[in-house]
């Protein structure tokens, strides 16, 4: 399973990279705004800064919602750095843009996916990644993890190579559940990744081992 971090915060991206388990980064306009990164040039520079910290894929989102605008923005984003993956919303012109980028060899991440039908369309259009938002589904009492398992079944039935990127992860159990149902990638905050690390019995056990070792020294 690939681990992406879902933030535009440079310190957190560095922390995750230093942990040695990071495969990529996802961002969105809200995450950029949260870090105070506004204005087209600052946002573009921030994408390049992120690419220079991590080794893997970095999703950068188009703002346009019409085909011509998405193509213009997506091509400019892809030209920024070889690690950039163009993030395209699951709307009618977004599907056309996914197909256009696939034909051009530009990698894409289809975002704001909330149903198996949307995921099927994204795969048909040749998306590199599809991003079902599981936390936001859970927020409205739908089952986000179930959506991941439905998409897994559909993609496996037909051998689609689009990678299932479980997004809107909120906590460590989301990561575990996504791993159980076969998501290819998860993207979440550093807190969710660090939640996998902790267990009180590990701390208690280590304390005892060190205390026993020190008895003889
Ligand atoms: C995905 O790429 C999105 O940036 C993200 O996972 C959305 O998460 P949220 O629902 O916590 O905003």
- What integer value in Å does the Rg equal? 19 Å
| N-to-C CA distance | 42 Å
Number of helices: 11
Percent of residues in β-strands = 15-25%
Taking the sheet with the most strands, its summary is: 8 strands, parallel, barrel
Helix content: 40-55%
Strand order of the largest sheet: 1-2-3-4-5-6-7-8
Order of helices and strands, N to C?
A: EHEHHEHEHEHEHHEHEHH
What structural class do helix, strand and pairing data support?
A: alpha/beta
Question: Can you list the ligands bound to this structure?
Answer: erythose-4-phosphate
Instruction: Please tally the β strands and state the result.
Output: 8
Low-confidence stretches: none
Q: Mean of residue pLDDT?
A: 97
In short:
This protein is α/β, with parallel strands linked by helices. It has eleven helices and eight strands. The chain is globular and about 70 Å long.
